[in-house]
UniProtKB/TrEMBL annotation:
Species name: Chaetorhynchus papuensis (pygmy drongo)
Transmembrane segments: 12-34, 69-89, 150-172
UniProt GO cellular component terms: connexin complex
One MF annotation (Gene Ontology) recorded for this entry: gap junction channel activity
Subunit relationships: A connexon is composed of a hexamer of connexins.
Positions of the Connexin cysteine-rich domain: 156-199
Keyword tags: Cell junction, Cell membrane, Gap junction, Membrane, Transmembrane, Transmembrane helix
Subcellular location: Cell junction, Gap junction; Cell membrane
Identification of the protein by name: Gap junction protein
Domain Connexin N-terminal: 35-68
Major site of localization recorded for this protein: other
Entry membrane topology: Multi-pass membrane protein
Length: 199
């Protein structure tokens, strides 16, 4: 059997979809998110001169840096895929070793230096009708592991969306009011580019 089914994705569409989501997400975070949020605290202007009040209000408005939160989100989403890829590579390597042992028993003491050698030997054995236990050379099936990997990624996406909502919400307000020590009264703070950040 051909070694092409060892690819870790079920179809070309799946591979393109994964690459687009990874590249698009990284592009949005790095090229759009970082320039937009790098000066966030500097442009968070409050109508007070009370020392420390603006810092406290900004901490209440944004408990975690948006940019760092999105970086952690992106890396966390990639971890299940990395684990799945390592699992696939391990299983493929073990399968090649089993094929090597099978062909080695059929063909004598000939050494195999690459997976291509294993493929060629097995193909020639089948052509010459040598009993190479071809039934044992089944195609590896990773659909179960792939489904688990997708399920974990989906759970992570939902969890990070919930955390995003509870930390920041999904819309950036024009004005943020806070009253917290050391502020002596209710202070109104204004966020830069709220419409662009909401989009």
């Amino acid at each position: 059997q051909a070694l092409t089914p060892f690819l870790p994705f079920p179809s070309l569409v799946g591979k393109i979809w994964l690459m687009l989501t990874i590249l698009l997400r990284m592009a949005v975070v790095v090229l759009a998110g970082y320039p937009l949020y790098q000066d966030e605290q500097e442009r968070f202007v409050c109508n007070t001169l009370q020392p420390g009040c603006s810092n406290v209000c900004y901490d209440l408005f944004s408990p975690v840096s948006h940019f760092r939160f999105w970086l952690i989100h992106t890396v966390s989403i990639l971890l299940p895929y990395a684990a799945f890829s390592i699992y696939v590579l391990h299983q493929v390597a073990m399968h090649i070793v089993r094929m090597h042992c099978l062909v080695h028993g059929c063909k004598g003491n000939r050494g195999l230096s690459s997976p291509k050698d294993v493929k060629e030997l097995c193909r020639s054995a089948v052509v010459k009708r040598i009993d190479c236990a071809a039934d044992n050379l089944s195609v590896l099936n990773f659909s179960g592991a792939y489904t688990v990997h997708l399920f974990i990624r989906t759970l992570l996406e939902v969890a990070f969306a919930a955390v995003q909502y509870f930390l920041f919400g999904f819309f950036v307000p024009d004005r943020f009011s806070c009253y917290h020590s050391p502020c002596t009264s209710t202070v109104d703070c204004y966020i830069s580019r709220p419409t662009e950040k909401s989009i």
